[in-house]
Amino acid sequence: MKTFYIETFGCQMNAHDSEKVVGTLLQSGYSQVGAPAQADLVLYNTCSIRDKAEQKVFSRLQQFKHEAGKGKVFGVLGCVAQQEGEAIFERAPHVSLVAGSASYTRLPEMLVQLEAGNRRVTGLKLDTEETFDTPFTRRENPHRAYITIIEGCDKACAYCVVPMTRGPERSRTSESVMREARTLADFGYAEVQLLGQNVNSYRDPSPAGWDFARLLAATGEIAGIRRVRFTTSHPRDFGKGIVDAIESNPVLCNHVHLPVQSGSTNVLNRMQRLYSRDDYMRRIEWMKNARREIAITTDIIVGFPGETEADFNETLHLADEVEYDSMFIFKYSKRPNTPALQYEDHIPEEEKTRRFMVLQERQRAIQIRRNARCVGSREQVHVEGYNMATQQWIGRTSQNKTLNFVDPELPSPSGDNTLAGQFTDVLVTRAGPNSLAGERVRP
Ligand code: SAH
Ligand code: SF4
Ligand code: F3S
């Protein structure tokens, strides 16, 4: 029996790609093992978004280098593979497979090559119309399923490698997305998450010609699906139709992740984000004025080249104004072949760190304030599992907040008796900066 091990880094797109890769390997007669030592084929599905992420795969490859030979084969997949290409064979000569996400449809052929003893197998073409749709996806989470709706990215943000590592935008037909969603509902998945680097620029290539809002609304109508999430939205392409859809169907989760990156129009222009602070705030207004309260989360880069103290202050003010429910903050990281690399006025590392901490502190206070407002309310959660350490069930609200709770009638899972995968109501009794806590209430 041939065995494989896979470790995945990076975003949800990568996590879902790995689920498809795993399914393809199982279909090709491989079985999955939990440690590189036991595997004939060791795969790393890599991320290149920041320098630290990229370094991880090379340290992993170093770590297990001594296990090469003895018939063990190493493969690098994902964004570092696409970015570094054949240079990986030079840097880590025990690697035999280098393939980017736009080539995974050819994975079965690449496996045949590896099995035949070819030690320089590549899948690096980016000029593709293809999307990686496979019926063999092996999903890790039994309750929440990812569905890719669009691959690649046609934007050109000055700091970002993704357009180079994932290629041009390719949307799946609405028919194939709907078919997959219906199949998942039949299997018992109650929650689906539509994925793309920029879901808002989804454009159905079939004559039906659906846009993203239409696809989102239609997914919310599928019998058996009780929650629909989506990520990520680019503000430029984020239309009012999305807010209208969320307003009119509670199955569509009241949470939007809308990365702003900076609160300064100057910086946004230099980032080539294609919107101003005002454009962004208009979209925030749509959400604030919606009939359902929509949770808003974001990504911010601090210390982009040329970011002045005044620019940074605008980001702080934006955070105050929007009052995000959660925020991912990143220190700008220089990336190969991106325009920002050539910019002048790179910010010293210590200053990036300072800005990071100032913003983090500010946002923490906002989250404490916002979450405190939930105390006393009754929330429906989708239960994810049980935390042995805290002896609480872990649930997630429609707004994507973690709500840990106790259930006096079922203090812990016993035998087949578990709440995991169920929907239940919880009274919120406490709130922290990053999560809520409460007690299950029965109707
Ligand atoms: N497609 C998504 C983002 C994908 S990358 C979007 O456009 O929103 C996720 C986040 O990583 C980005 O939102 C950005 O905040 C951050 N990021 C990307 N490149 C970066 C870089 N060079 N340095 C620091 N953060 C970066
Ligand atoms: Fe990167 Fe910008 Fe594309 Fe997002 S929209 S993946 S940040 S280039
Ligand atoms: Fe990383 Fe590639 Fe995702 S660079 S964030 S794994 S698209």
Write a concise keyword list for the protein shown above.
pyruvate-formate lyase- activating enzyme; 443 residues; OB fold (Dihydrolipoamide Acetyltransferase, E2P); binds iron/sulfur cluster; 5-stranded mixed beta barrel; binds FE3-S4 cluster; alpha/beta; 3 domains; binds S-adenosyl-L-homocysteine; 23% strand; Rossmann fold
Question: What does this molecule look like?
Answer:
With 443 residues, the protein is of the alpha/beta class. The chain folds into 3 domains: 2-123, Methylthiotransferase, N-terminal domain (Rossmann fold), CATH 3.40.50; 144-372, tm_1862 like domain (pyruvate-formate lyase- activating enzyme, Alpha-Beta Horseshoe); 378-441, Nucleic acid-binding proteins (OB fold (Dihydrolipoamide Acetyltransferase, E2P), Beta Barrel). It is built from 13 helices and 19 strands. The protein has helices at 12-27, 51-63, 78-84, 87-91, 107-115, 162-166, 174-187, 212-219, 240-248, 265-270, 277-288, 309-322, 349-372, and strands spanning 2-8, 30-32, 41-46, 73-77, 95-99, 121-123, 144-148, 150-151, 170-171, 191-195, 227-231, 255-257, 295-302, 326-331, 378-387, 392-397, 402-406, 423-431, 436-441. The longest helix has 24 residues, at 349-372. The protein binds S-adenosyl-L-homocysteine (SAH), iron/sulfur cluster and FE3-S4 cluster (F3S). The site of S-adenosyl-L-homocysteine has 17 residues, from β13.
